[in-house]
Write a structure and sequence with these properties.
Strand content: under 5%
Number of helices: 22
Mean pLDDT: 87
Strand order of the largest sheet: 1-2
Oligomer: single chain
Shape: globular
Radius of gyration: 28 Å
Low-confidence stretches: none
Structural class: mainly alpha
Length: 474
Amino acid sequence: MGLRLTRGRAQLELALESDVVDASADRTLYVDALRVQGPSDLAVRTNTPHDRVMSCDPELESDPRACAQEVLTAFAPRAWGRPVEPSENDRRLEVFDMVIADGDPPRLAMDYALRAVLSSPYFVMLVAPAPEADGRSPVADDFTLASRLSYLLWSSTPDDELFGLAERGALSHPDVLGAQVERMLRSPKASALAEDFAGQWLLGRAVDRAGPDSLIYPQFNESVRASMKESMRLTFLDRLRAATPVTGLLLSTHMHVDGALAPLIGIDLAPFAPFADQDVSAAGRYGWLSMPGLLTVTSVPTRTSPVRRGAWVLSNLMCTSPGTPPPGVSGFPDASPDAATVRERLEQHRQDPACAACHDPIDPLGLALENFDGIGAWRDQDNGEPIDASGQLPNGTAVDGAADLAHVLGSDPSFGRCVVKKLFTYTHGRAPDDADRARLNLLTDGALAGQASFSDILVRLVTDDAFMQVGVER
């Protein structure tokens, strides 16, 4: 049987059709093999990355060594993010010569020479210049800045424009750095920031480890998992590039949705519809707190977890430690006639004063998200009882539902300060300490602490002394 499929995601199913009337007859379908073959019309395409590196082919040149030298001379500076001395290239050419001397072909020798470039500490690590004679930290040169900026935003080596600015000594000017941040965020390579930074901070990576119970949530499958993760990546990229306040992460009513995710979101799309930006406000969705991926990873396999959700909001969006439970605290009670809903079971758990002290700042945040089940689908009931998503925060602010919580958090200056703190940590590879307090106060000064965009904050970070110097006097 032949079946021609169009480009995109497809779902194939096998079913047994039989007109046997006898109910006792064996109607078991045994599948011996299933073969998918294709595509059958592959076009020959150029290998752009290969061609970018290999300006010549040592196998076809009359002087293979001269070709190898040409390739290494162009490749090593880009790989190492700085000018390369001829003597450094000569050492990689020695690798080429050794392989040729062993009788191997020039292409294999070229392969080993390129491996020697990529195995160097100058590619594997960002090698910092030595301290000044008096022990002070030197100002980073333009090539170091190019590499820092590129790995921060793209998780990759500098491109031609960054490298060219570094060669002219122009990159270290604050206005130039700021313009480069704007340019680089618009590039497809900025997807790396969504995958790495947001993957850690906003739990995009954790979707891979989520394990909802298949009996309770039969609609969860690997396609849905992949769509959850991609939706988080694409939606964060939009927020990252938007010239709007970072509070849009909480308040935006738009989300990237495809056909696999649409039933969970509560909108109508064809089953295999590709990802597109959708207005999801009619489905009760506001910002990141209503992302199915986040709601799934902050649940347990068999139910929602207001404690997990509330603790995540507190620690990751407000940068406030939820504290650790005291030893000997009893586990979460099972459902019973007196406590059927998760909210009722949680209230039963809070009757222990030791438990209540920890739960007071956490539970109202998580309970406000109870209309979303363990995989982020909307629901009005829990175990047959109406959902009560209301609560009161420790400061007395009342919240009722996810949209209300999103607006309350978005109006709290702590959210903007927390975003700056998270970006600072990712930028520098360490959490800010007491010595960084004044620096963070400057970075979050005035409107920046809630009204700035992600790009505004990133520009402040990369033009700050802590980024412009190899190290900062502490």
